[in-house]
Amino acid sequence: MSTVRSPMQEALDELSQKWDIPTEISEIHFGKRDDLTEKIVKVGEVFFHMPFLAGPQLYVLWKCLWPDCHNCCEQPIRLPMTENDIELMRNKLGYKTKSDFIKNETTVITFQDKTINDVLITHSMLSMKRKKDETSKDDGKKISCRFLTSSGCGIHPDKPGVCWMFPFLPWRESGDQWWKTESHAKFVFTGACPGFYLDKSLDPIMPTLQDYSKKIYDYLISCHSSQRNSYISTSKTIQYRFLCDLPSTNIKSLK
Ligand code: SF4
Ligand code: SF4
């Protein structure tokens, strides 16, 4: 008798064919770890919510396996654009006007998610076409990006900001005083990335967090300005989650 596999099961089965995925990492993807908590570490202006397994006392860390892995460019479900991205890509692709670029190279997408604090949020924005004939109906489907070449991203480093973020999910929320806004980030567990591993210490990932802190902060500022100028609409201003679909995980705070 054949059993129907969930999208996450399918993704992890595919990932496991090429990479060794630790059992604990698979269990986190399926939301099966009751001992999954988080430790928050502030690096620069960003609060990173680092997954921590309270049982074995291990952190979940990440290291990008590029160029051996291209999964996030082979399977993006959308490429949302900020106002800065539109200008960057307009120049890169040689369009004289923003309107021509938007008409030919982007689609309008609307999607919902409730990744942060289980609040349902509706997002509307422009997404760069991953294939020339892409339409809005393709949003949410895994489509290999047309800019991926045998030597990597063909438009690197002038690629959309969202491409720099994965596997981090960045968001902004109110700080401890009403006039303050804080930048936050956590990992997304989509089943696409083989770069997660376990370690007793955060030390190995600290240089990466330092590198990403500035990128994430700048990207969130760009998202905020795009929202203010009506390039992005969200039903609630707390977060931006774009590249991949993911299940919610049972994370408790150990602040
Ligand atoms: S899927 Fe993960 S390991 Fe692979 S290229 Fe993307 S970030 Fe790196
Ligand atoms: S634009 Fe470049 S980095 Fe972004 S998904 Fe396409 S190939 Fe990957």
Task: Describe the protein's architecture and organization.
With 255 residues, the chain is α+β, with helices and mostly antiparallel strands. It has one domain. Helix content is 27%, strand content 25%. It has helices spanning 7-18, 23-29, 71-74, 83-92, 98-105, 161-165, 206-228, and strands at 36-43, 46-53, 58-62, 106-113, 121-128, 148-149, 152-153, 168-174, 181-187, 196-199, 232-234, 252-253. The strands form three sheets. Strands 1, 2, 3, 8, 9, 10 and 12 form a seven-stranded mixed sheet that branches. Strands 4-5-11 form a three-stranded antiparallel sheet. A hairpin with a 7-residue loop joins strand 4 (106-113) and strand 5. Residues 237-255 have low confidence and may be disordered. It binds iron/sulfur cluster (SF4) (2 copies). Residues 73, 76, 145, 147-148, 153, 155, 159, 163 line the site of one iron/sulfur cluster (SF4). One iron/sulfur cluster binds next to loops.
